[in-house]
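hey
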């Protein structure tokens, strides 16, 4: 017997209500040395000007340099995102933000950025800066980021 408002389609073969599939829970945690191979694989899987530079020793150095501002996003024991930053006192830099292609547009990048922002806020850091590729600009603007009045210059040292 169906209750009022229940449709035939909502009742499964065994008489149970059909439920949408459960979403995986995303866990944001500090990155650890054991994460280096998975982080390297993630960084190398995404289109990037520096893609070939992500050797294992480079990822290890990046984690060491970022110290407690390096985070991974995990779903079902798989690393699906990575972010790292560097605190220089009153301002900090978001050095890396990467989310696997299959997990993009699900809020994971925003969670990683917010986690770094929370850490920096607790330290009294006032500004977070990032080098942003033009296609990623709408993502940052949606999070409230704006272009500073500065010119970014770069020079390849190697």
């Amino acid at each position: 017997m169906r209750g009022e408002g229940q449709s035939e389609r909502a009742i499964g073969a065994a008489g149970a209500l059909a439920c949408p599939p459960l979403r995986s829970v995303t866990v944001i945690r500090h990155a650890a040395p054991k994460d280096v191979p998975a982080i390297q694989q993630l960084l190398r899987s995404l289109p990037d000007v520096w893609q070939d530079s992500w050797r294992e020793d480079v990822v290890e150095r990046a984690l060491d340099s970022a110290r407690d501002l390096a985070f991974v996003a995990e779903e079902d024991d798989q690393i699906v995102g990575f972010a790292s930053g560097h605190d220089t006192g009153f301002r900090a830099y978001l050095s890396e933000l990467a989310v696997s292609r299959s997990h993009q547009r699900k809020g994971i990048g925003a969670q990683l950025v917010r986690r770094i922002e929370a850490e920096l806020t607790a330290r009294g850091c006032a500004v977070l800066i990032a080098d942003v590729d033009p296609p990623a600009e709408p993502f940052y603007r949606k999070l409230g980021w704006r272009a500073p009045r500065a010119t970014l210059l770069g020079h390849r040292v190697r």
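Residues 108-123 form the longest helix (16 residues). The domain at 24-142 is CATH 3.40.630.30 (Aminopeptidase).
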